[in-house]
Amino acid sequence: MSRLALALCLALAPLSAHAGDWRTGEELLQSCLQTDGPGGVFCLGYLMGVAASMVGGPVYGYSACIPPGVTGRDLADVTIGRLVAMPERAKYGAAGVVAHTFAVKWPCTRART
């Protein structure tokens, strides 16, 4: 995949995270399981977009304090693990599922400033 296509996916991911749950957790999981190709790139961009949105405040009511150094691959591993372990959550909208996953994994232990 070209760098331009990757940059475009990453640039649009924050918009897609709040554009409504047009993709379910199951659909996102299928993309995230693709380590190569457009599905994998979409997955990383989508997850990084949700994570970036959560820096500005809650997403679907969930807050997370993701520490520095967490990579896109780390986000994908956490999301895949949660969706595989709890497949009943995969039927819900992807953005909410991801935000909840990040909030559980990286809860905020003190008030945000």
Describe this structure in words.
The structure is a single chain. With 113 residues, the chain is mostly helical. It has one domain. The protein is built from five helices and no strands. The chain has helices spanning 3-18, 25-32, 38-55, 72-85, 94-105. Helix 1 (3-18) crosses helix 3 and helix 4 (72-85) packs across helix 5 (94-105). The longest helix has 18 residues, at 38-55.
For the secondary structure, the number of strands is: 0
How does the overall form come out from the CA principal axes? globular
Distance between the amino and carboxyl termini: 39 Å
Approximate strand percentage:
under 5%
Radius of gyration: 13 Å
Number of domains in the coordinates? 1
Number of helical regions: 5
- The chain-level structural class is mainly alpha
**Low-confidence runs:** 4-19
Helix proportion of residues, in percent? Answer: 55-70%
* Strand and helix order: HHHHH
User: What's the rounded overall pLDDT mean?
Assistant: 83
Largest sheet: none
Short note summarizing the structure:
This protein has 113 residues and is mostly helical.
Output the keywords.
single chain, 5 helices, 60% helix
What is the fold's blueprint, element by element?
Layout: H1 3-18, H2 25-32, H3 38-55, H4 72-85, H5 94-105
